[in-house]
Design brief:
binds pyridoxal-5'-phosphate, seven-stranded mixed β-sheet, three-stranded antiparallel β-sheet, 16% strand, 12 helices
Length: 372
């Protein structure tokens, strides 16, 4: 059996090597390394895939959030709500831009931001919510949109982890994540569901004005070359990365299907374990399983990680602390019970597009042999 990895990027590359190599060679031959034609082509193809008017490539998913927030041009004393059980990017960007960070708690089974808790934290200064579609599924968008409309807030969707997943509205219609809020952002970090071979990111919107402002901000605030309309940053999607992303985007739905199959295998095998809680998919969303994250309710999470490591099964803790518990963010802290409990109990199992049933079976047997 092939060694088990959290993410198998080599295996995925081997299967599409010819196309990827040809794409990279083409960029090198053309020598159009910055803003080459592949960038525009990829932006257009991703816009079509998502069903959104504008996609703007940028250097990484954190920059995407920064450009989005800069484009909203909020008052200096604005408060912005972000989930505390999350990767650091959204909180970091809010703090860097000098806005007041307000952490909200998350749902105990879905891990996404809890609208009831958000409601309690809205003040007269709240201007935006950064909604994070964590681990592969959507946050409860209709409830959040209702809140946003009531209080005139912007919604930014940080969709670094759930590209391709769909929100299912009450009336049964579906929309891809990234196209529901005012602005969507994503990351093409190699291990993401749509990953490149370095850093990359993108910003999406249906709003023509916001799109033009964001394109300008990502390019030094230029309106045209050497005409600086506003203060911007330098954040570009590399041409070679765009050439790698194009064939991977064509396979994204296939990659999602394979992740869903691996998740179904885990679900089926692990449901009998009474000490372990398998991940729940909310009724209003599809799940693309960026992570397969289980909860160990018996306090033996770290012992389980060691037990699996002994059998050469890697695991990761996403995330070992809620952000408000981290030194850098304690100043904005409050008590967020669910986030704190999840940081103590979650563990993510290997999840990627190349897992074999032999590997999955081996992992499940190892879990079943654990005495909690
Ligand atoms: C990975 C990630 C980001 C940022 O991505 P980078 O490309 O590494 O900057 C932002 N938000 C979430 C939720 C992420 O998982």
């Amino acid at each position: 059996m092939k060694p088990i990895q959290m993410v198998d990027l080599q295996g995925q590359y081997e299967a599409i090597k010819d196309e990827i190599d040809a794409g990279i060679a083409q960029v090198i031959r053309s020598a159009k390394f910055i803003n080459g034609p592949e960038v525009g082509l990829f932006e257009k193809e991703l816009a079509d895939y998502l069903g959104v008017k504008h996609v703007i490539g940028c250097a990484n998913g954190t920059d995407a959030l920064q450009v989005a927030l800069m484009a909203l041009d909020l008052p200096k004393d604005a408060e912005i709500i972000v989930p505390s059980f999350n990767y650091v990017a959204a909180a970091e960007v809010v703090a860097l831009l000098g806005y007041k960070l307000v952490f909200a708690d998350v749902h105990p089974r879905y891990f996404t931001i809890d609208p009831e808790d958000v409601r309690k934290r809205i003040s007269s200064k709240t201007r935006a919510i950064i909604v994070v579609h964590l681990f592969g599924q959507s946050a409860p968008m209709e409830e959040l949109i209702r809140l946003a409309e009531e209080h005139q807030l912007f919604i930014i969707e940080d969709n670094a982890q759930s590209i391709g997943a769909e929100y299912i509205f009450h009336d049964g219609t579906r929309k891809k994540l990234n196209t529901i809020g005012h602005i969507g952002t994503t990351s093409f970090f190699p291990s993401k569901n749509l990953g490149c071979y370095g850093d990359g990111g993108a910003i999406m919107t249906d709003d023509d004005t916001l799109a033009a402002v964001m394109r300008s901000i990502a390019s030094h605030g230029q309106s045209k070359k050497y005409h600086y309309q506003r203060i911007g940053i330098n954040s570009r999607l590399d041409t070679i990365q765009a050439a790698i992303l194009r064939p991977k985007l064509r396979r994204l739905d296939e990659y999602i299907r394979r992740r869903q199959e691996a998740a179904a295998f885990y679900d089926n095998q692990l449901k009998e374990l009474d000490w372990l809680v398998t991940p729940a998919c909310a009724p209003y969303t599809t799940h693309v399983y960026h992570q397969y994250t289980v909860q160990v309710k018996t306090g033996s999470r770290d012992r389980l990680a060691a037990h699996l490591a002994e059998q050469h099964i890697p695991t990761m803790i996403y995330y070992p602390s809620a952000l408000h518990q981290c030194a850098a963010y304690q100043a904005w802290g409050s008590s967020l019970k669910v986030s704190e409990e999840l940081a103590r109990s979650v563990i993510s199992l290997p999840m990627h597009t190349e897992l074999t049933s032999e590997q999955l079976n081996y992992i499940c047997q190892a879990l079943k042999s654990f005495i909690s």
